[in-house]
Specification:
The complex is a heterodimer of chains A (147) and B (398).
Chain A (H helix, E strand, L loop, with lengths): L2 E7 L4 H13 L4 E6 L13 E6 L12 H10 L7 E8 L8 H12 L3 E2 L4 E4 L7 H9 L6
Parallel strand pairs in A: 1-2, 1-3, 3-4, 4-5, 4-6
Helix pairs in contact in A: 1-4
Chain B lengths: L13 E4 L3 H13 L5 E4 L7 H5 L6 H4 L1 H10 L4 E3 L10 H7 L2 E4 L5 E2 L12 E3 H8 L15 E5 L3 H10 L3 H6 L4 H7 L6 E6 L10 H6 L6 E6 L9 H16 L6 E7 L1 E7 L6 E6 L6 E5 L2 E4 L3 E2 L22 E3 L2 E3 L2 H4 L5 H20 L10 H7 L12
Parallel strand pairs in B: 1-2, 1-4, 2-3, 4-17, 6-14, 7-8, 7-14, 8-10, 9-10
Antiparallel strand pairs in B: 5-15, 11-12, 12-13, 16-17
The chains are: A alpha/beta (147), B alpha/beta (398).
Chain lengths: 147, 398
């Protein structure tokens, strides 16, 4: 059965709340599963499902802790992800040179393995102190969920 | 979805002491497990969020935004905030434990560690925590004749030291725009600082600052960066090399002449602060060569070498530890836990303390789910009945 899987990679918890808000927004449509990227088995990535990835940036443009196992598993196993579709929303802070770089690591590895990014690359800049939630929910409304 | 185990155990009543990031993260995790439990967060200040509000630099709005995440606890998740209530003072810890099934101490560590050298109490020596709290409008801090001066030394090379360098080289206009009080801006005289020496005990590759914090300094206009003692030997790890190289790069890439300068000194231990009735200079000794000394003429010394428990604090962890305590999971005694800096010491960023709170929350959940702790205490009504004066409390949600 096809479902929408929302995967979040977080350091301070903001991406998790964004995932929950998007999950609430999509509720009522297809079935929605929300998971921390560190709890998700990359072997489950399937063309049957649609993935929404919410990922923050940590330190000097690095992946947040909870996204690292996901990235490492993909890099190590190099599965063929042809047919897998995903949308991505990056969190960051343009006070730092490495604004929003964390999500780009995930985007790159998924693309390299054959997955296809759909919709607009969503981003939120926390430099003004705002939470990403409203922007992310608006972004999620524009996604072609049933591609 | 995050699976919620539907176990038959009754929801416990929970009191959290301290509304900083550790206390708030803990409330988030406990709320996920117990949707209906009474969770009350107490704070000695009238407003919540502790270090997020008073410790994070005012220009780090992205970091401060975590407070918007915590707002949800009080706005949507039914967690109660009770301010102006210092536990151990207005309400005793025993009263709190009598009323609540679970009490978690998350009051942090906010005393500036002193240098512990002769002269470290001279006028002109200030703790970084105090300066940061002043800048952030902490109600317990006063300017009290504070004047920073044109030439200052910052002792320590962690992220707090980086915050101070950046804030002291930020224009007064920008600080006012960020909401820093006018009298504080005047006392700090930002913009009039000519030279800052940042002196740390560790070598550049072992320095405690995060790379992103160091790189942020390059955005400051009209500053010349100078770095000394950049050792090449004995750097084993890639992170260390990256740090050392970043310092060299910043120094190499900055103008040789500028209106302000920042001098990094690595590998020096403070020895004494010299002055009659105020700071005149500070002396250091090399960690590599005991015959080598560094003397800096300065108007002020800011110490940023970490935080410790204040001996005057009404809650001290050691008073509640016993042989049965298991500090590695935050367990002090039945129903009493600790989290965050009070548990682990003054180390780790906000996200690292989120992980810490998760661990303590898991230990609490396990104790209840395995019936080691059986809920039954009535919570806040019992506390208010014990001590009617406590009903005069403030509640706030932002």
């Amino acid at each position: 059965m096809s479902k929408t899987v929302i995967l979040y990679g977080t350091e301070s918890g903001n991406a998790e709340l964004v995932a929950e808000d998007i999950g609430e927004e999509l509720n009522g449509g297809s079935s929605v599963v929300i998971s921390d990227m560190s709890d998700f088995d990359v072997a489950e990535l399937s063309p049957e499902d649609f993935y929404i990835i919410i990922c923050s940036t940590h330190g000097d443009g690095e992946l947040p802790t909870s996204a690292r196992p996901f990235h490492e598993s993909l890099s190590a196993a190099s599965p063929d992800l042809s047919g897998v579709k995903y949308a991505i929303f990056g969190l960051g802070d343009s006070s730092y040179e490495t604004y929003s770089k964390g999500s780009e690591h995930i985007d790159r590895v998924l693309t390299e393995l054959g997955a296809e990014r759909v919709g607009e690359y969503g981003r939120h800049d926390a430099a003004d102190g705002s939470l990403p939630n409203d922007a992310a929910v608006t972004w999620s409304q524009s996604l072609p969920l049933f591609v | 979805m995050n699976a919620i185990k539907d176990l038959p155990s009754q929801s416990p009543t929970i009191a959290i002491v301290g509304s900083g990031p550790s206390g708030c993260y803990l409330a988030q995790y406990l709320r996920k497990r117990w949707k209906e439990a009474e969770i009350v967060i107490f704070d000695r200040l009238p407003v919540p969020y502790g270090l997020v509000r008073f410790g994070v630099a005012p220009d780090h709005l992205g970091t401060k935004a975590v407070a918007r995440q915590f707002d949800r606890l009080f706005e949507r998740e039914g967690v109660r905030f009770i301010g102006e209530t210092e536990i151990g003072n207005r309400v005793t810890l025993q009263e709190l434990r009598d009323a609540f099934d679970i009490v978690v101490l998350a009051s942090g560590l906010h005393g500036d560690r002193a240098l512990g050298v002769p002269g470290d109490t001279l006028p002109g020596v200030h703790g970084a925590g105090r300066i940061t709290r002043l800048i952030n409008g902490h109600p317990g801090e006063q300017i009290d004749g504070l004047r920073i001066g044109e030439r200052i030394a910052i002792v320590g090379n962690g992220n707090v030291a980086m915050d101070l360098v950046r804030l002291l080289l930020t224009s007064p206009e920008r600080l006012l725009e960020l909401g820093v009080a006018e009298d504080v801006v005047r006392a700090l005289e930002p913009g009039s600082v000519k030279r800052i020496d940042v002196v740390g005990r560790s070598a550049a590759h072992d320095a405690k600052f995060d790379l992103a914090m160091l790189r942020e300094l390059t955005k400051l206009p009209d500053v010349s960066f100078v770095a000394q003692n950049l050792a090449d030997e004995g750097i084993a790890d890639a992170d260390g090399i990256a740090k050392r190289d970043a310092v060299a790069e910043i120094a190499g890439g900055s103008p040789a002449r500028a209106a302000r300068s920042v001098h990094f000194h690595f590998g020096w231990t403070p020895e004494r602060i010299i002055g009659q009735d105020k700071v005149q200079s500070i002396a250091f000794r090399s960690t590599a060569d005991e015959n080598s000394t560094l003397l800096l003429d300065v108007e002020g010394v800011l110490t940023a070498i970490g935080f410790e428990e204040l001996t005057t604090s009404p809650i001290r962890r050691s008073h509640h530890e016993s042989a049965e305590s298991e500090l590695d999971k935050g367990y002090l005694s039945p129903g009493l836990y600790c989290a965050g800096w009070l548990r682990r010491g003054p180390r780790g960023t906000i996200p690292q303390n989120r992980v810490d709170s998760k661990m303590v929350a898991d230990a609490i959940i396990e104790a209840v789910d395995t019936a080691q702790l059986v809920p039954g205490k009535p919570g806040l009504p019992a506390l208010l009945a014990q001590n009617p004066s406590n009903s005069r409390h403030t509640e706030e949600s932002a």
